[in-house]
Amino acid sequence: MLVHLRHLRADLALPAIQLGAIALALRLGPGPGSLAALAVLLGTGLLGTLRALRHARLIADTPTARIVSAAQGYTELRGRGAPLDGDPLLSPVNALPVLWYRLRIERRQRNGEWRVVSTDTSASSFLLDDGSARCVVDPEGAEMLVRRRDVFVRDDLRYTQWSLIEHDKLYVIGDFATLGSADVRTDTTTEVRELLTAWKADRPALLQRFDLDGDGEIDLREWELARAQARREVRQRQAEALAAPELHLMRPPSGGRLYLISDLDPERIGRQYRWIAAFHAAVFLGASAATAWFGQIGVF
């Protein structure tokens, strides 16, 4: 089953760099060029191993939480995908509703090979429902491991689309935040002062509302009326905010930690990262052995 990785730049770029270093070393032969290529292989092999193992450990060690009781911060969620209210996100290929897509368009060349001409990735948020509550998932900046892959060929164009659709099983690990009544500001004094400052900045409107005697000035009695009105408006806004439902959100974490969205089981994802780690470890060990062998025969 094919899996598409979006934003896994290091997982895709490091092997390409390593293959390029090996090709360069073979072309240049023994000497400074080979030494530089081995240094690249050592560095990328170590980096790739540590990175993949760190991601595998995060997936294994982060417990799955329920949305309704999840702690704020780095969290793992599992549930079913659902669209946000409003107009659905439609696939640009077949106009069917999707939660997320990535589209690659290729053109057939004269020699029969396919050449990529464009790519397009959706950035619209969607919902994860685990039965206890719903959480908005922001795919921007996430690493996407998605197995649904559809291919359409029309004339000399080939469209390859990876997608998530409604009711798909979803696994998400990232920064969980609950916004809403828990975040409502309740410093009434400060809010009243700020509201009065805003009213004073629009003097014509202030006079129209509170200059009861029409003398073009706000006296002490009229100012007290303005303060009382500001206090009433602030308390009303606070009450409305406290009554509003909470919004659960999954977003990219700080500190460069893994932000992953997938329709695969976490156990399989962890195995994939461990295989990646094993590959990079083999590159590192092979480069180490080659460096030691070249040193023994005096090539460097």
Largest sheet: 5 strands, mixed, barrel
Question: Numbering strands along the chain, what is their spatial order in the largest sheet?
Answer: 2-7-8-13-12
Using the alpha-carbon principal axes, give the shape.
elongated
Q: Report the sheet-strand fraction.
A: 25-35%
Share of helix, binned: 40-55%
The Cα radius of gyration reads: 29 Å
Structural class: alpha+beta
How many structural domains?
2
Stretches where pLDDT falls below 50 for ≥5 residues?
1-9
User: Total helix count?
Assistant: 6
Distance between the termini: 45 Å
Order of helices and strands: EHHEEEEEEEEEEEHHHEEH
Q: What is the number of E strands?
A: 14
Give the overall average pLDDT. Answer: 83
Helix/strand layout:
Layout: E1 4-6, H1 9-28, H2 32-61, E2 73-82, E3 89-90, E4 97-98, E5 100-108, E6 114-121, E7 126-129, E8 134-137, E9 143-146, E10 149-154, E11 157-164, E12 169-179, H3 188-201, H4 203-210, H5 220-243, E13 247-251, E14 260-262, H6 266-296
Parallel strand pairs: 8-13, 9-14
Antiparallel strand pairs: 1-9, 2-7, 2-12, 3-4, 5-6, 5-11, 7-8, 10-11, 12-13, 12-14
How is this structure best summarized?
The chain crosses the membrane at residues 35-53, 275-295. The protein has helices at residues 9-28, 32-61, 188-201, 203-210, 220-243, 266-296; strands at 4-6, 73-82, 89-90, 97-98, 100-108, 114-121, 126-129, 134-137, 143-146, 149-154, 157-164, 169-179, 247-251, 260-262.
